[in-house]
């Protein structure tokens, strides 16, 4: 059996707590020979700043390059609000995304039947929901230059962020999107703001061309990102795969997360281009939720998004589809049995903690695999 090298970067806030549950699962997978994983750990975010005055060190970056996959927790917290912008906790994550070339961020939003009641939307709107937001992750306004704040000297300052996309960046994310749609319900919705942004005009044009050239069999529609956001809460089941840029994808995926009941439920995969020689992709897996400083250290966080990210890693990086299915099924069964962390528990009902949820998933997996 091939041994896969995983780099675990728990980060800040609830990151280490939810990562602890992933470690339990990796130990279980190794013990049951469902896979063979070697793990290394590193610092990223505020904890790395405290230790090394940077958000991620070159040594950890080298480990990330060498790993078969990176599993990432969360970064940030109020104690680092005043650190210099270049070394703020989020800079560690952005450096990983950029230097590993992780341009395709897959964020599935699946509403587990057991959680229909946790969503703030009506049952019929979210019941059975299964959509994917595909977010472009290495371009656009998060990385574009110039990115500055200039003192104008008259008591005013000017802030500039640059939204920039080249044809190749739109083409490659569009291809990932069409390929995903083909394996699902064959429908792709592209979202931009072509009515006000040049980058939206080009985005629309390039996605349309890739469709006409290579993916005529897939149903393609375009929506403006603002009304797309509205449609996402109005009737999300009209979508299958949504492809959009870095900024809109950041926002729309948080909205999609809430459709599923809690931000604590959404995993994600960030993938790079296929290597010409090995056919492998660089990859990082992370929950969509952040570091949740308000509940950090209390053992309350929901580890399901983090566990789901491990399932995506098994599927997308290692072709271990059966193990991934088993893990996702175990999560669904645990939820169906009524166990809930606080974020998804009905008011007034008893909730279990982070470790309780992780243990329940391991036990369920053990039971199912007997
Ligand atoms: C996300 C987060 C990050 C982003 C932050 C932590 C930099 O919000 O992954 O959605 O903005 O991309
Ligand atoms: Mg976000």
Structure summarized in a few sentences:
The chain has 370 residues and is α/β, with parallel strands linked by helices. It has helices at 15-31, 46-52, 58-66, 89-99, 123-126, 167-182, 198-214, 225-234, 246-259, 304-318, 321-336, 354-368; strands at 4-11, 37-41, 69-74, 104-110, 130-136, 144-151, 157-162, 187-192, 219-224, 241-244, 267-274, 281-287.
Characteristics of this structure?
370 residues, alpha/beta, Isopropylmalate Dehydrogenase, 2 domains, 10-stranded mixed sheet, two-stranded antiparallel sheet, 12 helices, 41% helix, globular, binds 3-isopropylmalic acid, binds magnesium ion
What does this structure look like?
The chain has 370 residues and is α/β, with parallel strands linked by helices. It folds into 2 domains: 211 residues, Isopropylmalate Dehydrogenase (3-Layer(aba) Sandwich); 130 residues, Isopropylmalate Dehydrogenase (3-Layer(aba) Sandwich). Helix content is 41%, strand content 21%. It has a 10-stranded mixed β-sheet, with helices on both faces. The chain has a two-stranded antiparallel sheet with strand order 6-7. Helix 1 links the parallel strand 1 and strand 2. Helix 10 runs antiparallel to helix 11. It is globular. The protein starts with a strand and ends with a helix.
Order of strands across the biggest sheet? 2-1-3-12-11-4-5-10-8-9
Based on CA atoms alone, the radius of gyration comes out at 20 Å
Strand fraction: 15-25%
| Unreliable sequence segments | none
Distance from first to last alpha carbon: 21 Å
| Distinct ligand kinds | 3-isopropylmalic acid, magnesium ion
The CATH level-2 architecture of the largest domain is identified as 3-Layer(aba) Sandwich
Specify the helix fraction band. Answer: 40-55%
Spell out the helices and strands N to C: EHEHHEHEHEEEHEHEHEHEEHHH
What is the 3D shape?
Answer: globular
Question: What is the β-strand count?
Answer: 12
Biggest pleated sheet: 10 strands, mixed
CATH superfamily of the largest domain: Isopropylmalate Dehydrogenase
Q: What count of structural domains?
A: 2
């Amino acid at each position: 059996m091939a041994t896969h090298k995983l780099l675990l970067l728990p980060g800040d806030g609830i990151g280490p707590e939810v990562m602890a549950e992933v470690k339990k699962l990796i130990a279980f997978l190794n013990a049951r020979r469902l896979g063979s994983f070697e793990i290394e750990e590193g610092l990223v975010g505020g904890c790395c700043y405290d230790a090394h005055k940077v958000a991620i060190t070159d040594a950890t970056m080298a480990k990330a390059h060498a790993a078969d996959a990176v599993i990432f927790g969360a970064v940030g917290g109020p104690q680092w609000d005043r650190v210099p912008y270049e070394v703020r906790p989020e800079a560690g994550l952005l450096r990983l995304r950029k230097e590993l070339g992780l341009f395709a961020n897959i964020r599935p939003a699946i509403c587990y039947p057991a959680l229909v009641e946790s969503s703030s939307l009506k049952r019929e709107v979210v019941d059975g929901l299964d959509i994917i937001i595909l977010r472009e992750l290495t371009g656009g306004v998060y990385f574009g230059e110039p990115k500055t704040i200039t003192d104008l000297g008259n008591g005013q300052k000017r802030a500039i962020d640059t939204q920039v996309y080249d044809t190749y960046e739109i083409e490659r994310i569009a291809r990932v999107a069409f390929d995903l749609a083909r394996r699902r319900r064959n429908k792709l919705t592209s979202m931009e703001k072509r009515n006000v942004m040049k980058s939206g005009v080009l985005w629309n044009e390039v996605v349309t061309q890739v469709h006409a050239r290579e993916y005529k069999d897939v149903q393609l529609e375009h929506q403006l990102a603002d009304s797309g956001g509205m449609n996402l809460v109005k009737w999300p089941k009209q979508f299958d795969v949504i492809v959009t840029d870095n900024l809109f994808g950041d926002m729309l995926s948080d909205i999609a997360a809430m459709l599923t009941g809690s931000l604590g439920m959404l995993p994600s995969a960030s993938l790079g281009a296929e290597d010409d020689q090995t056919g492998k992709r660089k990859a990082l897996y992370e929950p969509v939720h952040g570091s949740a400083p308000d509940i950090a250290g209390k053992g309350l966080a929901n580890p399901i998004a983090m566990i789901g990210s491990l399932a995506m890693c098994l599927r997308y990086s290692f072709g271990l589809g059966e193990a991934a299915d088993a893990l996702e099924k175990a999560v669904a069964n645990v939820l169906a049995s009524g166990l809930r962390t606080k974020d998804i528990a009905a008011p007034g009902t008893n909730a279990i903690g982070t470790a309780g949820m992780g243990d329940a998933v391991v036990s369920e997996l053990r039971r199912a695999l007997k």
